[in-house]
Structures are given as C-alpha cells and as structure tokens.
Amino acid sequence: MVSVKTPRGVRRTDALLSDGRELIYYDPADLPARVPLEDTRGLPAPQPQVDLRTDPLTGDVITYATHRNTRTYLPPADQCPLCASKPGNPTEIPDHDYNVAVFENRFPSFAGPGRTEVLCFTSDHNSSFTQLSQGQARLVVDAWADRNADLSARDDIEYVFPFENRGREIGVTLNHPHGQIYGYPFIPPRMRTLMARAREHQAVAGSNLFADILAAERKEGTRVIAENGNWTAFVPEAARWPVEVHLYPHRQVAGIDDLSIGERDDFAQLYLDVLGRLDGLYGEALPYIAAWHQAPVRIDRELGYLHLEVLSIRRAADKIKYLAGSESGMGAFISDTSPEDVAETLRKVRS
User: Fold this and answer.
1) Which pLDDT score is estimated for 70?
2) Which of the residues 67, 178, 201, 246 is marked catalytic?
3) Could you point out which of 138, 220, 255, 303 has its C-alpha 20 to 30 Å from the C-alpha of 146?
C-alpha cells in the first residue's frame, strides 16, 4: 500500500518493506510523484528481543536489546544497506534513487512500546551532512519535523530523540550519511535532569532556563561562534566535551515541528556553517554526535526549549577524550579544553 501526503509542502510517500516495516520517502513537492518499487528481498518478520529494567539506585531505565549484537557492521560500500537498491545489492530502500528516506530500524532498540527509525540524509554514499546543499539539508529538517509529529502522537512514546552519530571513533556501524530517531517509551535520564533543573529555575527566577542561557550567551558573546536572524550557535560555558556547540532558535518552541518556515531555513544555513567549521578545526572530518533536545511529549512542555547539541570526543588532532575513571565512575567531567578557546578557534575557521 502506498500513500502520498504533503506536510509543509514536502511530498511524503509511504510504503512497506517486505517484512512489514514502514518506509517513507521525502521529496521536494515540485518533483514528479514517486511510485515506490517493491522490496523483493522476502525478509522474515522481525523478532526483536528487548527488555527494559529500572536501576533501583538511580531510577534510570536500562534497555537490553540483545538482537542488536548481530546487526550489520561496516560493510563495504558496494554492500551498504542504506544506499539505493541496484542489481546485485537490494537494500532497505528498494528505489534506484531517493532524496531523503526513513524506515523502521531492522535491529530496533525498542519493540512493542517505543520505536526506532533510520533517517538517510541522501542517497550519495560518499557524502555527509556537511556536504549537503542547503536545500537538501532543509528537506532533512522537514523530515525530522514530520517524524516528530507522527511519533509524538503515539501513546507508547514519551520522548522523541533525533540524532546523528558520525565517525568510527563514535561507534557508527554504517558509513552512509544517516541519523536515527528514537521514540523512547520513557523519559531518558538526561532529559529528566534537564527538566528538573528547568523546573527549579522557573520557580526561583520566574523565567525559562534555556531562554535565559541563550540570552546570557548572546549578551556575553565570547563563546558565540555564528548566528543569523533566527538561530545562534555557541560553545556552552560549562561544556563537558572537548568540542561542544549548541544551536538555539531565538524563539522558544517545544519541538522541531513547531519551527516556522523561516526558522527551518535559517537552521539549515547555520547548521551547515557550524559543521563546516567543525570539519575545518583539524583539517579533516570531525567525529561527532548531533543530539536534538526537545520537550517531552506529554509533560513539562512549557519548560522545554528545542535546541541541538553537537559534541565531539576529539580533544586534539591526534587525541581522543576517553570517559575514564572520573567521567565513567562518578559522572564528573574533567575537560582538557577551554570553552572560550574552542569558540575563538571555531570563529576563525572559514571566516
């Protein structure tokens, strides 16, 4: 079964893979309508093994997904499952080409309650988000927004987390440019902490914690690395990671789907600028995690403030920041880099 929708002027085409998983294509609305090709692989129905347990010491939910230990690991380019299909290599995307594609993960971290999806930024295996055109990056933003709206409407999802892992040092298992979207059936630990802090701040200061952080960074200015009409990118004052950049919209919104057309345009422009600076930091592609922070689906909506955090474990051109005793054992970060120095360096890159 195929259905076509046009959220915010983008053409969305829904299809099914041979094992029943959903596949969604996102195309510019001015392109000809897509007629998806059939997935001929004849895959068996997924049988994920997932167990959720709560740590009595911290209250954190730990997810056990043992089936993921058999997932595809760094295949050669001609066997990449995220490329468009071609003779001899039928993939997760049956069509011969695509712009942006999203599908249910074949090796999901959650099953039953919750959902995990893969979002392919482009069909070009040798590209990266940094190399996308602004129009292509903008299409990814629209796909994020549409998926956030869909997943937030589900009763079994409490938090929607779009993210990208980039680079072998981060632990990627597929080199094709892509991200993931986790629909958690619980509020993840970091967001529980952030919302608790935001609640305390609101009670004491009478204002939104994230809005006040953004205002302070823009006023102080030494850690701001780039901005435009709707967004500001800065290194946070208490950055944990050797390289860490936060991108905030100037208007408080709860989720990606709440962004206006102009805010989506300006995000694509600024994010590509920031990624270019990050890749210029050491003269090569920087390993990073890009993590969207949105408001929880059902609670604390008024306390949340959509923003993107980009972090890297590379602390020098030839050195990696490992989470050793203090970080892993006690959760107390000790940094080898200064936020002000990192911000000054990033401002000079490509300037």
Assistant:
1) 85
2) 178
3) 303
